[in-house]
Design goal:
Distance between the termini of chain A: 63 Å
Helix content of chain A: 40-55%
CATH class of the domain at 38-85 and 142-325 in chain A: Alpha Beta
Number of helices of chain B: 12
Number of strands of chain B: 22
Strand order of the largest sheet of chain B: 11-10-12-13-15-14-20
Mean pLDDT of chain B: 88
Structural class of chain A: alpha/beta
Largest interface: A-B, 61 and 58 residues
Oligomer: heterodimer
Largest sheet of chain B: 7 strands, mixed
Mean pLDDT of chain A: 92
Number of helices of chain A: 13
Bound molecules: thiamine diphosphate, magnesium ion
Shape of chain B: globular
Low-confidence stretches of chain A: 1-29
Amino acid sequence: MAASKANGNTQPVKKKSPSKKAAAVKAKKSTVSKADLLKFYSDMLLIRRFEEKAGQLYGMGLIGGFCHLYIGQEAVVVGMQAAIEEGDQVLTSYRDHGHMLACGMDPKGVMAELMGRRDGYSRGKGGSMHMFSAEKNFYGGHGIVGAQVPIGTGLAFSNKFKNNGRVTLTYFGDGASNQGQVYESFNMAELWSLPVVYVIENNQYAMGTSVKRASSETHLYRRGSGFRIPGEEVDGMDVVAVREAGRRAAKWCRDGKGPTILEMKTYRYRGHSMSDPAKYRTREEVQDVREHYDPIDACKRRITQAGYANDDALKKLDKEIKAIVAEAVEFSKNSPEPDPEELYTDVLAAVS
Amino acid sequence: MSIDVLMPALSPTMEEGTLAKWYVKEGDKITSGDVIAEIETDKATMEVEAVDEGVMGKILIPAGSEGIKVNVPIAVILEENEEGKAAPTLSNAPPANEKEPTLQDAPEDVPESLLPGGRRAAVTVDAQAPQTLSDPDLPAGTAMQTLTVREALRDAMAEEMRRDDTVFLMGEEVAQYQGAYKVSQGLLEEFTDKRVIDTPITEHGFSGLGVGAAFGGLRPIVEFMTFNFAMQAMDQIINSAAKTRYMSGGQMSCPIVFRGPNGAASRVAAQHSQDYAPWYSHVPGLKVIAPYSAADAKGLLKSAIRDPNPIVFLENEILYGQKFEVPVMDDFLLPIGKAKVVRAGTDATIVAYSRSVEYALTAAETLAGEGVDVEVIDLRTLRPLDSATIIASIQKTGRLVTVEEGWLQCGIGAEIATRVMEQAFDYLDAPVARVAQQDVPLPYAANLEALSLPGAGDVVAAVKSVCYIE
Ligand SMILES: Cc1ncc(C[n+]2csc(CCOP(=O)(O)OP(=O)(O)O)c2C)c(N)n1
Ligand SMILES: [Mg+2]
């Protein structure tokens, strides 16, 4: 893998080296049921097909502004979502389509928002980077790198305050992990034992900057060590490994032991956003990950090897997922633009 | 069923591009995600991935074709069960080289009004035409060259870096990536990574570091990828950069330039679309510059880099690709704090800055057609604000319209209206009218965005209102 080596980064797939503290909470390895595997597969595939479509619609001018695709990273959100409980909260950056679909938000509402239509989750006012669902406990879509980290910490603060047993998954990127407010959050979270899982999606690049060029400590799971927060490196291309790590982390929080950090080693296949020519890495590097480490292919192999489903059944599933995405697109195309009156609504809440 | 593969857009502002390469040939099997082609614009290259599965049925546009419009079919993919069938007839696909009605040979960053799903009726001007008045101090017969604002900014930095080796550029993606908006193109090559420095995403940190470096005798240029992210660094810009000279009784100097694109781009929504001009203009100890033309961008950025004070230099992404005439001179410097009359007139004065100047000039053209002769002032510098130029114009016209892309409350227009009221009350024949963004965060939806931002039409209406027309 000369290309990746030249780039100086570790591979997306690496053996975990959990810290002692994290290892201590390691549950005994559970087996993966047929139902789980098939769900993982179809959830990941939905994200992939949805994103491919979004990319295409962007190229056609139906989606505007910035549009950051999640292709390649699907195992992270699907595995983590499987590790948490109903009522737990999720928030992330602008690269949020996958998180929303994993949270169970309706592809129709997400797609309509991408197109700036009335039936979008933010009624067309937020767009790709700024979407929310109170119902699904998805707290955004944040456009400012790192800003969601203290906010997720604050949600965890409210959970502890209310003693409701809920856990907050706060996702952020390798680039975001250099923002000062991340460390201010780490300190408070550990100081006050807040139930927050910091999920660092290390896709190896922040726009055109590789981790090595921006970070003095490239093992991001160690970034909490100065605050005594345990961290674990996870193969973010393996949905099952993600779920297992997620379960350990969530349990740690629910047991009242405070925050944890999971560094997901993953990879983004597409450019940073649609307008990124991605000259900072070689085609071979991308191709290599796609061919050898693709999370969906890996899950598929697991399924077929275990005899849980054959190629035909999976093809049929793919067709069904494509139909869901096509329906979301049709729905969104037919959804009107927001009413002009909407321009002035929702600025402030009415005082009763 | 066959599926058309369409020419994609690389960015919200791309209209056409070159189809550089095909990675597949007719008859090849394709799965979604496969890279099938490469397209190019003058700014970027990108791969086209297949979204559908099947067999490459027909390549409609050969490799190497230039000027392919976005959304034109470039190939046809046949679904697997169609393999072996004849390629479909292409009667409904427009021939590749048939020119669609083009609007103009626009630069790549064409205003989004020209795009499918664009946000408002065309408000663009031929940026070169209305630059009628030149700077008074320009020697007669000075040669001109056509440059984009992007090139002018780069040239200004390069010239100052050659002149003074304490000048350095720092920011996210400024070096290897050549700038997120390609403003620092070529600088790394010429000045090496000692002076063109990629930073981590840590605005508060590197802005403060820049302030310290300036205290230490260097002349930093700190690029914010956009000024939206400078909010992370607000404390260092205001509490450290702006106030230290005063607090130290004049001992400390902070010669630093904070620069980057400011204001709304296209469809990037609330967190990425703000005009910070009024925010920084509020602060004593800062100088604030917001140029419109490439010449002003160059002359003022050079002066800013030499200035011994902290400077906030507000650019505009949509203007980056626009072309203007720039004087060819060894050392083209413009004075900070001087507004410029960019169009002379007698019936009303429009004061604008940055991209609003474009709306003002377009409105002036429209109004001229209706017999209203307006004067347009480009402020260029917002702090110190050149009241004298504005007052002199009001004394002639008696009527004033201000234009800005930010919000009304405590905005630049509010400040100008107050000064005019204080200093030229007796000359006013009508209350001052202000044109600005609606009082809401900027929405994403195309129709709401268009309703929210000001445009030339709003300026025309405001001028008519101060002239009591209709
Ligand atoms: C405070 C701030 N600075 C800069 C940006 C511009 N920006 C958007 S995404 C990005 C890269 C972030 O990379 P990373 O955190 O690794 O997340 P990824 O995009 O890889 O998911 C940058 C610099 C921003 N949105 N906010
Ligand atoms: Mg990243």
